[in-house]
Amino acid sequence: MLIICISTLLHFFILLFDACFPNFAPRYRLLLFQYFSLMLLKSWWKILSFVLLMYTCTYGFLVKIPVLDGRMQQSVRNLFFHVPMWFCMQTLFIISVIYAVRYLIKPNPIYDYYSLEFARTGTVFGVLGLITGAIWANYQWGAPWSGDPKQNGAAIALLIYLAYFVLRGSVTDENKRARLGAVYNIFAFAMLFPTIWILPRLTESLHPGGLGSEGNPGLNPNDTSPQMEMVFLPAIIGWVLLGVWISTLFTRLRIYKERLYEAV
Predict the structure, then answer these.
(1) CB atoms within 10 A of CB 178
(2) What pLDDT is stored for residue 252 in this prediction?
(3) Regarding predicted confidence, which is higher, 59 or 199?
(4) What is the 3-state secondary structure (H, E, C) of 81-135?
(5) ∠ at Cα 236 (144, 61), nearest 5°?
(6) Nearest of 43, 13, 44, 47 to residue 30 by alpha carbon
(7) How many CB atoms lie within 10 A of CB 74?
(8) Could you tell me the residue ranges of all domains in the chain?
């Protein structure tokens, strides 16, 4: 499917170029075609992210939802936005801690930049997860914040990561800041498991997956349908790819600024 989309885009560009520049030299047209081909092949995952998110933001509001005895109703469509935020956050934090470990093994500043930006973007998606969850909770439970173990655990996890940025900002020496940040990053990542995945399972919770309820801390399969899964799974992939895209952009920008500073 992706190959078909890329081929269609290339064909569209060729037709558009021929219509705008009918007298353009064939050899330059070939070079331009090769340039667009390399660009699309290199950025296929970015195109995929855009397509999946457009699909999520359109079909997500059109897909038929199951009747759940008065539960959820239309608010269940937030499933395509709220839950993928947490998947994206977890993925970005995993990539961040991997680069933190790589920095401790081999102190390369590039690894520290990647670790920092992926943690930063992951925190942003975590905050978006809290906001979308609060909106959903206000309609479903009557209040945006009810002290639910899942809500409290997610808030604690994000506060731990916010302390990571405070720690980095309090150290002036670059090498020391990178080492301390890498070590703390590992600690912050380890705290995700008890705060988000373990403790909510051990206590009663309004979220699914709590003590005495079905599903896992993120999703109850009984609240979805095969039609919703056709949107939910692409939404996860699309949001995760968007998070990776944003993180890599900010990392490249940071590397460019550092090299520009060194040149001056």
Answers:
(1) 23
(2) 93
(3) 59
(4) CHHHHHHHHHHHHHHHHHHHHHHHHCCCHHHHHHHHHHHHHHHHHHHHHHHHHHH
(5) 65
(6) 13
(7) 9
(8) 2-42, 55-263
